[in-house]
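User: Please predict the structure of the protein below. I'd like the answer in structure-token form so I can feed it into my own downstream comparison script.

Assistant: Understood. Taking the following sequence of 179 residues as input:
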Amino acid sequence: MSRVGKLPVPVPENVTVSIDGARVTVKGPKGELERTFHPDIRLAQDSDTIVVTRPSDRRDHRALHGLTRALLNNMVLGVSEGFVKTLEIQGTGYRAELEGKTLVMRVGFSHLVRVEPLQGVEFAVEGQLVRVSGIDKQVVGQQAAEVRKVRPPEPYKGKGIRYQGEFVRRKSGKGAIGE
């Protein structure tokens, strides 16, 4: 049995879940998410939990069991608490600001880099930190990866955009050749 799949998904009081066959709609204080799951996987709702079961021990059913439970749990967490990814901008003269909802960054290019938010995503800038927030975990992660891709951290001086807490392995320059 899948370690992740066998765990029931807790549903807070302020979240409503409606299951219509393979289609699940989750509504909460932060918004609403809808997703269609694989039709072989069964979803059953008790009063305050959702249980995910699989029809057999076939390899594809085992894989879908844990995946479905994790996606459903992320939907419930997203509409109740939301997800946030924090990025750090490091480098002399590197900075970010908001123009309306658009993120505008100066990261060492001869031009400004503008990043439009995906649907359901918001940016917040606090000094050298850029916070990407939303209710869909996949979309928040995708948007954060797109912002980081503008100027990934380089290994010599460490300048660039990185996830908060990300370790960037530093290289010594060409002056560190042993004699």
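That's the full token string. Residues 9-80 form a domain with the Outer Surface Protein A; domain 3 fold (CATH 3.90.930.12).
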